[in-house]
């Protein structure tokens, strides 16, 4: 499971890259508490409206299909591959 470290907000979940349902935008999202970050440099998380967690860029859901966790290839294409704490090859 690819992730960027443990969520500072809840201390339990992993910060992972999520593709919204439009599959055009990506957001860093805690897989436990749904805290969100726009970039790896952001210190304070954003909390999106429950239950669909709308993408800030387009409003598409970060929960409903076809939203999904980003693949390792997508993470690398976005230039964040070196920032991963854990990656499955």
Would you write up a description of this structure?
By secondary structure, the protein is mainly beta. The protein has one domain (15-83). The protein is 7% helix and 19% strand. It contains 1 helix and 5 strands. It has one helix spanning 72-77, and strands spanning 15-19, 26-30, 35-37, 46-47, 68-69. The chain has a 5-stranded antiparallel beta sheet, with no helix packed on it. The chain is globular.
In a few lines, what is going on in this structure?
By secondary structure, the chain is mainly beta. Helix content is 7%, strand content 19%.
User: Strands across the major sheet, in which order?
Assistant: 4-3-2-1-5
Radius of gyration: 12 Å
Helix content: under 10%
Q: pLDDT below 50 for ≥5 consecutive residues: which ranges?
A: none
The count of β-strands is 5
End-to-end C-alpha gap: 9 Å
Indicate how many domains the architecture comprises: 1
Major sheet details: 5 strands, antiparallel
Assess the beta-strand content as a share of residues.
15-25%
Number of helices: 1
The sequence of SSEs as H and E is: EEEEEH
Class by alpha and beta content = mainly beta
Cα shape? globular
Mean pLDDT: 95
């Amino acid at each position: 499971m690819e992730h960027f470290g443990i969520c500072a907000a809840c201390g339990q979940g992993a910060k992972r890259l999520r593709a919204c349902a439009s599959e055009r935008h990506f957001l860093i999202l805690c897989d436990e508490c749904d805290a969100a970050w726009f970039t790896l440099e952001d210190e304070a998380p954003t909390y999106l409206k429950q239950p669909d967690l709308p993408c800030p860029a387009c409003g598409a859901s970060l929960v409903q299909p076809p939203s999904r966790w980003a693949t390792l290839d997508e993470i690398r294409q976005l230039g964040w591959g070196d920032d991963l704490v854990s990656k499955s090859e």
